[in-house]
Specification:
By secondary structure, this protein is mainly alpha-helical. It has one domain. It has seven helices and no strands. Helix 1 (2-23) packs antiparallel against helix 3, helix 3 packs parallel to helix 6 (110-132) and helix 4 (74-101) packs antiparallel against helix 6. The longest helix is centred in the middle third of the chain and has 28 residues, at 74-101.
Length: 156
């Protein structure tokens, strides 16, 4: 599990680098718009900040899916993977819809858009990766360690 998980994290480190490289190819009009009007998106102009935001989000999703894989029942883990996949699918659709129908976002150019599409696809890859991982047996303590023996059977 640890080896496969480290491969997934390494994949996301490289994949996020590609995403941020594409996002940094924002058009000149987009750069001016962010500098003058859309100041809440100023972090998109900084490569390290954009990389940090995107990779931390991906690592948070991986952390949640790792937790559910190790601690919850298989059914709940599959449900969590499904929810993450559906949220990423909705995010991908919303991003596409926003970039197509919002004129100011259309001006940011296709490479910028592709970087965000890849972000959502990366999240879907994580959900599928964890859904396909073999089940792990939850670690349980023996019952005798959890419940003390009755007082009349206690060894003196």
């Amino acid at each position: 599990m640890k080896k496969k998980l480290s491969i997934l994290v390494l994949f996301h480190l490289v994949f996020t680098f590609i995403q941020v490289s594409l996002i940094s190819k924002i058009s000149f009009i987009g750069k001016v718009g962010i500098a003058m009007m859309y100041k809440e998106y100023k972090f998109l102009r900084s490569f390290p900040k954009t990389y940090a935001y995107l990779i931390l989000t991906q690592l948070l999703v991986i952390g949640v899916l790792t937790y559910t894989h190790q601690r919850l029942s298989r059914r709940r883990h599959y449900m969590t993977c499904g929810v993450v996949f559906l949220l990423a699918l909705v995010g991908l659709w919303y991003t596409y819809n926003d970039f197509v129908h919002n004129y100011s976002h259309r001006l940011l150019k296709e490479r910028f858009h592709l970087g965000f599409y890849l972000f959502w696809i990366g999240m879907m890859i994580s959900a599928v990766f964890f859904a396909l991982l073999p089940a792990t047996k939850p670690k349980q303590l023996p019952v005798t360690d959890l419940i003390p023996p009755p007082a009349d059977q206690a060894v003196s």
